[in-house]
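To fix ideas, we now present one chain and its tokenised fold:
***
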Amino acid sequence: MIRQRESFRFDPWLLAAWLIPFVIYLTTLAPSVSFYDSGEFITAIYALGSAHSPGYPLFLLFAKPFTWLPFGTIAFRVNLATACSAALASLGAFLLVRRLVAATPCSDDAPFAGFVRNGAALASALLFAGSPRLWLQTNHDKPYPLLSFLVALSFLFLLRWREELLAGSEQPAWWYGVGFLAGLASGAHQTIILLVPAWLLFILATRPRMLLKARELLLTMAFALTGGAVQLYLPLRAAAAPHQNWGDPSSLSRFLWHILRRGYPEEPHGRDVSLLVKQLSGFSIPHEFGWIGLLFLLVGLVVCWQFQRPFAIALVASLLSFWAVIVGVFNPQPESIFLTEEFYTPLYLLAAVLIALGLHAVVSRGITMAERPERFSWQHRVLAVLFLLLLPGFQLVENYRPNDQHANYLAHDYAVNTLRTLPERAVLFTWGDSGAFPLWYMQRVERLREDLDLPHIPHLIFPWYQRELPRLGTAFNDVALEGEGTAEQIFMQLAARLQQDRPVLMDYSTRHSLTWGNPKPVPLGMVYWVPGGACGPWMSDGAGRWDLQALHRMGVDQPWQVDQDSDKAVMIEAYALLRDAEAALRAGQQARAEWMLRQVTRMVPAWQESVKRLRRRYNVAGAAGEGAL
């Protein structure tokens, strides 16, 4: 029997499931670069290069068209791409719930039953959209929302396959679609492989003998390889030598080194019960959805077990699979557990689906127990939607302010302030990723201070990274190559060569990550002069360096939840200000010093006592110097 093609019909619920999260995200979106991997991701997207291992080719290709938009900075446009993918992931949750509740009993009044089902599906979309983990990633560039959308589609395909199978029609095309999505999703993040056991268990719970179909399994794997061909982007672009070419995966060995993350060797760590508890609690439903959300999740799991048992089994298997690899293999230590918490983002989408199933079950039960009219009125619809959307609405309101980063210029201003004060043709060595990546973005994308070189010390051991710094090519001659010296040794050798004709400096993290004898590095605002080279006239500028800096947006007292690296950046600026203020006081420049001290107390209110002690030491009144600078 040939099915007739259904005519297109506008679906306002479908539009709302994507549009509401997207509009909310627009109001909280970070306007520029952030800390952690943000600057490096944006630079790789802009240059169509390669990001850190495993490269994230799908995410780079997805975000690249957004850089062509005619408004906002490049960073804002990439952040907008992430917001779009997060809204798509919310839409994926909506589609999953609507399909899962299609067969569950609700009411004899078909229009009212459809209304309740759509309301529950919308609740799922808004629950996931308002979860702290997804929202935090959505404000700036992250690949996990895109991965979550593909995970939702894969489970949707499996549900469609099951429906067709139970209706008497085998449709292997849905298997092929899951395989293709799995391969494609590997270009967003490799944790997609952790869902393979869940997919297999879904098939086993539906009809075990289906896994004996060798032809279908082989074709599914072929489609997975087809989707995985997105990884070929890495060697193809590397062959063109783009500016951001992390790992240089132009050869097979370099490509495997890159995607297998061999640049991040891990030392074995011990295990104990307290560490295990912390690792397992990295996945936390109460943190994301509250204790009430956990209660409805359990209800939803019971309902799912009754009506969609293969899906319930797959969800439990997904969590166990993630725990087995993250806890059993990665074994993150307490200080690095937060890095693995992002991996659970797709599981929170599935958790939002279960919570929505629980909400739908409670509403359906209430309808069954109540005195049922033949047709439900608009008052009943209002009551139903209020109940369904109360929890997601509360979550959106509660999490809005901590995630409202529309005025977050901390990383942008930190990078601008650092680069503006450097002398011409300077070489600034950096250490931590958050100290380096915003500088990369400002220089390579926003074209600020292209006369500078910004070598990153941990990467100096890699020949591919040395090629990223062509103006230092001659200085790299005869230095230790990969495996023949530590990054610190190469840094010392390079600094000694470069100091002969260029100003050589280091950032705060480099200064405090290495052990220094005498002479010690000399502080110059937020950076330090590497000892051993000739001093230029730029070293005596003192407090005047702050004339070039934008400080009005720097501060730890922000409406959003400030991350550790943002907090550290503000502290670095405030500490340098405090130090230069004292130098200005010793030189008798009280007006300038007082302006600096006021900036310090504004940026870090907790330092007011230190500022007061400094004023008393030099007998300076707090009101002095109003209007200076």
User: Anything to note?
Assistant: The longest strand covers residues 427-429. The chain has 26 helices and four strands. The chain has a mean pLDDT of 88. The two ends are 82 Å apart (CA to CA).
